[in-house]
């Protein structure tokens, strides 16, 4: 047995047992801790599968930002958990549910094992059609050129999601600031961290966007890093979350998708198709879109974590 | 006249010369509007969206004209990349019908809602106004992408856009129970999305493409279906059914559609549930027509029949008007799924009937929710037993409700009549008479709850007896009443469109001559014998129901909503049957039961496909 195989088996067993542990955890807080660890292990699994872009996204979004969101939710739900547990289904029903879930998972696993070998892939086709884009990272090529519409729509989906989060505010609080971020008690360590880390985070984000054209990386990962830095600053109390009625911030939210659509429409005349890039200009235009989308997605992610607007100063009572 | 015709013909020619690029307009219009609207905000958002819906309707009609005149589907390659590498758009006749229908309903809702979400005096925006108008655009963008997309993953993103826009609309009122309904909807719809995505992944793993046309070629070329394909179809179908709220996966629909503000309910009931149905249609008819030869179509048909019977019976027993309409939606979704077993034997008839059901129900149901919203706003409640006097106070609104109901139950020349006639002919042609029986029963039950509401509205005892009239009445805007009435008339007079308009349905599909099918169905629709034959059962049901409505000065209104519909023996038997169905429905709407239904349905579908090719 090679070292790689042994580490894979250990990783898979860890992931499976963590999944079970998350499901049976007594409190939401414990389940979230398990979930974050699970995300990090999944990141390693993606690295083992040589899917670096997926691994980075999983670490940044799946484990990182989702983790913050779930921690905040678990903290808010903690007072009601005991009452909720009393209403949980009877053990027999839970056993049945567990059994059925296991069977479904086993069935799906069997189907996956049945898939044709070698797996059909578009990778050679993507590689063949990468040169006109001027990019060298095939993932960015697929996301920004071959399947640009999916990326455009995915970045749009964030907006209804954010508006949906805002929509649960009370009518009277609409002009207030979001107040769902956990606010740990002020401490010098947190303040120091929130002052020192963001410049490095911003550098990392710029690096991720810039190399995304040729190496693994890109806007979603960079945006997650930027959002995390901003959330850290807000959680340390160095900056208040912006009011949802602020036009300036809303402008930042839409600038990425707007630029994407504008360049796409210009393509109808300049490159003979919607979402096509003129010859020779593909790479600069793609990088422009990536930069703008990074900003918009970062703002959207941070605002999603900040929650619906509340009356001023309500956020102080978070913890 | 001839000059105008020449002008129109020239315009269509110009558009045809542009080719598939015209499809970008309906794809991008709502999305761009959402981006601009978010920055614009404030006082003029409603007008802005109204303007967009006008543009959108114009574009949809233009595309429909080009598709109809050209006689072939419009195609467009995004970015110039052809599948499997790139993503294509395609508008066949079916897409064009859906584009026009959704643009029409959107325009009506935009008109109706101008007064529904007021702005504060100083012109600054309010929560409900911003959320409603922007998410309306989000829903519209999702719908148009679903109707035009040709790639299973693009369609998934479109469904996500649709779901995330639709769910918050449910909770716009801000009450705890609507928030609970929205969360229920969100969880079940997300489960549906996950199942769909899982299926799409399996399909990519099997065939290396997600393009529907390429998949159709590759699947048809295989001599037997691999297990991954069978699993994928079962997963995707069940996921989409959960999003469509097909019985018995409807646990989220009644509270969500009844709890949303009326303008939002109209969109949710008329359009949103149709998007996932449309994808089932794409998968079963276009991607894998071989599915029609399997026993799976009987499962879909049986669930449709269950929806018609249970939905209508439970609707009959509702105390609140909006819940009644929501259960009516549940039943009407059922008709859509009768299309599948019938298409196996008579595709042209079944497909035309199913498409007309989408259009007719969209108009009628939007009109009903709008009318119910005006009634509820006027009375301050929507309890059916206390509607007395409303017909005198809001005659146009009650007329709109009644006409929409007539269109649903299928009287000449409504869309419902065409649906019933076409699907019944399809049932006869394919030797499956039992589906016809279900439709007849469904029509009579629809008549029963329609007359129950109209009975109370026209003859019911007034709740404010003794007080001066119209004290509690808040007058709706004239525009709102007229919009509801016009939508109801659209549904009611659908059959009078020239047959050539129906030909649109069959464009891009071999062997579907929809215009001819409709001509046959409409021929003789107004013969006395035929008219009377369709009318007398409805009249008898109507009379029976009206007898049960307490007259002014009779029993107190609240009593009429109890189990006792009538004191006669048959009345009591009917009440018991209704009660049984109500219990069945309540049990099916429990989470564990719904989960188990979903699992069994998936297994059943997978089982019915194994070994087919």
Automatic annotation (TrEMBL), chain A:
What keywords would UniProt list here?
Answer: Cell membrane, Membrane, Transmembrane, Transmembrane helix
The Na+/H+ antiporter MnhB subunit-related protein domain, residue ranges: 191-298
User: What is the top-level taxon of the source organism?
Assistant: Bacteria
| Record has Membrane as a keyword | yes
User: What Pfam families would the database entry show?
Assistant: MbhD, MnhB
Q: Where in the cell is it found?
A: Cell membrane
Which InterPro entries does the entry mention?
CPA3_antiporter_subunitB, MnhB, MrpA_C/MbhD
Ranges for domain MrpA C-terminal/MbhD: 13-77
What name is this protein filed under? Na+/H+ antiporter MnhB subunit-related protein
Q: Which organism is it from?
A: Thiocapsa marina 5811
TrEMBL record, chain B:
Tell me the keywords, alphabetical order: Membrane, Oxidoreductase, Transmembrane, Transmembrane helix
- Which cell locations does it reside in? Endomembrane system; Membrane
Enzyme class per UniProt: oxidoreductase
Q: How does it sit in the membrane?
A: Multi-pass membrane protein
- A GO CC term? endomembrane system
EC number from the UniProt entry: 1.6.99.5
Q: Which residues cross the membrane?
A: 20-41, 48-74, 94-117, 129-147, 153-173, 185-207, 227-253, 265-285, 291-316, 323-346, 358-381, 393-413, 433-459, 479-501, 535-551, 593-611
Q: Specify the domain of life of the species encoding this protein.
A: Bacteria
GO MF annotation terms: oxidoreductase activity
According to the entry, every stretch annotated as the NADH:quinone oxidoreductase/Mrp antiporter transmembrane domain falls at 150-438
Name of the protein in its database record: NADH dehydrogenase (Quinone)
Q: What is the lineage of its organism?
A: Bacteria, Pseudomonadati, Pseudomonadota, Gammaproteobacteria, Chromatiales
